[in-house]
Write a structure and sequence with these properties.
The protein is an alpha+beta fold and 577 residues long. It has 20 helices and 18 strands.
């Protein structure tokens, strides 16, 4: 490495670290797949290529200990193939132990080599039958079978030309996104200037050419922002692959049998969410295994398959990313939850009596409440679900739970698209400009204020054959308290108004608007601290005329408006009509 400068070596190790950690994740997933299904030739091919690549790359950066472990894992695979290719628990445990050693050395800011003592200790602890070379007579056939699999070069890193992609620092992508965002704002200014110019000038050849150029620039900016945004997106499969290993270990420790099913791995989300989402999902999975699903004996007695199923599913719903964690275990019992909450002093008996099942399930997210019969290393202290809720809400998302006794439980996590460029409807209410993602809007109605009526004390609008609740953004953002004070613009209401009909999370409601300004591509930007406490706001943007526009999170607007109405009816909040 004497030929490299310190800076060049640091850059090389950074590339090596990123690629090798990715390969270790892939190897873990493939090992577990081979344990479940030995006849997975593609997984075997990927596993061998990955070990070979790590060995070659580690030699190039002088990490001899890592290279030695990768070499020994190759030997392990050959011995397993010599015995018929049975990746049993002993063989998989041995290889996973080697992967852990390599990850421990690489998964740190300063990449370090595995000590010779650590390599020897790992090798000494291997099952003798797993690595014994007593099957030398069977080795030629096994080696020939393995050698027939596709090869991959062991050249120096991520100089390799077979990769169909390049790795880019996150800061560079963020810089490109910021530039694209500024171009979107500049396009908004150009749109307004162009409209004014056309109104003041007679049609001419120059005006026609200017209009065509403007349309072409707008198309190019749209394509640019779309592709730059895609650079920030990663598939949620990068998180899913990390769950198989801890779930396997937990099932072994708990004596339970389970099948982990992961669907929608191709669903894309902002890379900034991936690391933040891993821990909450792992909490839910651990809780599902520890006290959500039953033991094999209990399941057999309940006429269920002795192998439990936990399903993690991701998909897009409008402008949100939805992740469901579902198990087919014992389910939650509302009355039991209420009783535990009363004993913990979290609610009164009177409050528990008036709760419906959905409200009872929400008790699970209170600090200090757990459904576990006893405290274990995994769960039972009443902090897991509460920690999940706090983590998801910190990402401006929400988490809900639904359950049926003896059938199972489903946690649903919803995350808004943040740091993204979206199409939104611009409107004004209470003297403030707002934006609402178009994907959440089903239609817009222009009505007379007299068409708004009261249904059970809630403002409502008759949409064809049914009434829908109508929400004022000011209720969710506490603008209404300004009535009669400095907010003079809030004292009068127009006779004609708009109802923006929103359909999200299985609910339909209306948002009241005083004026509409059309749809526009907007860039979601972070807000100052004074707004961060209000989850009804997903972000803010700036339009061409310099106006600051608040971007609403439709689901949280409804939730906060419902809470406002309940407090108003209970007389716990002063309301000036």
């Amino acid at each position: 490495m004497d030929d490299f400068t310190q800076n060049e070596l640091a850059q090389l190790l950074a590339v090596y670290r990123e690629q090798t950690l990715h390969l270790l994740d892939e190897m873990t997933a493939d090992l577990l797949a081979l344990e479940a299904c030995t006849a997975d030739d593609e997984a075997l091919a990927r596993l061998r290529r990955a070990a070979h690549t790590i060995k070659g790359d580690s030699v190039c950066v002088m990490l001899e200990g890592v290279a030695e472990i990768a070499h020994r894992i190759e030997d392990l695979m050959e011995n397993v193939m010599a015995r018929g290719g049975d990746f049993d628990r002993n063989a998989v445990d041995a290889m996973l132990g080697g992967l852990d050693l390599m990850r421990e050395a690489i998964d740190r800011e300063a990449v370090a080599d595995v000590s010779a003592a650590a390599v020897k200790l790992w090798a000494d602890e291997l099952d003798a039958e797993t690595i014994d070379a007593a099957h030398e007579d069977e080795m030629p056939a096994a080696t020939a079978a393995i050698d027939s699999l596709p090869e991959q070069s062991s050249a120096a890193p991520a100089a390799r030309r077979t990769e169909p992609y390049v790795r880019i620092e996150a800061e560079k992508i963020d810089m490109m996104l910021n530039l694209a965002s500024e171009m979107v704002i500049a396009r908004s200014v150009l749109n307004q200037v162009g409209a004014q110019f056309e109104q003041q000038q007679a049609t001419s050849e120059l005006l026609r050419r200017a209009r065509e150029s403007h349309l072409q620039i707008s198309k190019l900016i749209s394509e640019l922002q779309k592709n730059v945004l895609r650079l920030r997106m990663v598939t949620i499969d990068t998180i899913f692959k990390r769950f198989a290993r801890p779930m396997r270990q937990l099932a072994i420790e708990s004596g339970k049998r389970l099948e982990l099913e992961m669907l929608g791995g191709e669903t894309e989300l902002d890379r900034a969410l991936t690391d933040a989402l891993y821990e909450p999902l792992l909490h839910l999975l651990r809780n599902a295994v520890d006290h959500g699903i039953e033991t094999p004996g209990e399941r057999t007695a309940a006429d269920k398959p002795d192998v439990a199923r936990i399903t993690v599913r991701a998909y897009h719903d409008g402008n949100q990313i939805v992740v469901e964690v579902r198990d087919d275990g014992r389910g939650l019992m509302p009355e039991a939850l209420k009783a535990k909450a009363i004993r913990a002093g979290l609610i009164s008996k009177a409050r528990a009596a008036e709760m419906n099942d959905k409200e009872a399930f929400e008790l699970l997210f209170l600090d200090g409440l757990s459904t576990a019969a006893q405290v274990t290393q995994v769960s039972g202290r009443g902090v897991g679900a509460a920690a999940v809720k706090r983590a998801i809400e910190a990402l401006h998302g929400s988490v809900t739970v639904a359950s049926e006794a003896a059938v199972g439980t489903c946690f649903t996590l919803r995350l808004p698209l943040t740091l993204a460029i979206i199409r939104a409807l611009m409107f004004a209410a209470n003297g403030q400009w707002f934006a609402l993602p178009l994907l959440a809007i089903s239609e817009v109605a222009r009505i007379q204020s007299s068409e708004i009526t009261q249904v059970d004390g809630v403002e409502s609008y008759r949409l064809r054959d049914r009434f829908i609740s109508v929400v004022r953004p000011g209720w969710a953002l506490d603008f209404e308290r300004r009535r009669g004070g400095a907010g003079a613009a809030l004292r009068t209401e127009a006779e004609r108004l708009f109802v923006i009909v929103v359909a999200i999370a299985g609910q339909t409601f209306g948002i009241r608007a005083d004026a509409l300004y059309g749809e526009e591509a907007v860039v979601i930007k972070a807000l100052d601290n004074q707004w961060l406490h209000n989850d009804a706001i997903a972000g803010a943007t700036l339009v061409g005329n310099g106006q600051i526009v608040l971007i609403l999170d439709a689901e949280n607007v409804l939730r906060k408006a419902i809470r406002f109405e309940r407090l108003k009816r209970e007389g716990k909040r002063a309301y000036a009509s």
